[in-house]
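Bench notes, bay 3.
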Amino acid sequence: MLCERCKKNDASYHITKIINNKKVDLHLCEQCARELGEIGSPFSFQNILSELMGYISQPYELEKHYEPRCSNCGTHFSEFKNGGLLGCSECYRIFNDELNPVLKRVQGSMKHVGKIPKSRGKARAVSNDINGLQIMLQKAIENEEFEEAAKIRDEIKKLQNSVHGRD
């Protein structure tokens, strides 16, 4: 294939550009490609990649200077990372984005599943059962399983009455 510009030399550069949302293919010889600035450009893929790699390998200075700090007690997040303790209840809100992945990894869930005092245990267990049944009820209704939904509804009412002492 001959160069589209000079029509003398073989085209050794095949360039594709998008101009005004239209694809334009250029087939140029080396000399015409250089004259048009299509090769040897400071914006070549190799130059951009090498600059990017140099930037990545440099230490990120801003990261060293920015550290979340609780506006209530003054605790830095690094203090929590080192000692495992937060300074106040406000720290949970301030460090929420940093804490959630840590808590999820350590505890396996963001939902509390620990021990409950006996005085509140039955009510909490029944409340959890009701919440689970309400989710099942919603799914049964969405799937148009109305007989199953009615059974689940009755079970929810039975549990609610037992909590309120209306057996």
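Next record in the batch:
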Amino acid sequence: MTATETNNPRWWGDSHTSNWDRIKEAMRRDWEQTKSDLTGGDMGTDLRQDASDTLDQARGKQPIPMGDVPNPMDADDVKKAARAQEKVALALDAEFERGVKPVPVPGDRMRWEDAELPMRFGHGASTHYSDNWDDTLEPKLRADWEASYPGRSWEEARELARTGWNHARPRV
């Protein structure tokens, strides 16, 4: 079931759809970049998409390249890439020495088609509920999810919904 083939939660309105339509391509690009980053390029696509690109694209302040065309590289990207590679290498070395195994990245669950619906739900829920995501709100979110998307497990959707929620909330 894709996000366009769904029943919506009872609180979902045209403004939620409009907001999601505006940001979903930026979120998809962020998803592909995260997969690429976490798997060393074995999965996903390196789009040179960082958090500032995602936020600027979602806000309409930066154009979104077509399809899987990478964002133009700027001087900051070059510096960030060098720092990131050094940090990752140091972290992996330290984990290896401590005997920590890398976190496995699930294959099929990493497809955008599987991630979009829960992320869309979380994004919409964050604009509907003024509360913080906590133990009091989560049962409401779970009930909304289960009523709207029967057959889709809340346990499998929860973290992706939380990602959508966090992307919609301002950082403090």
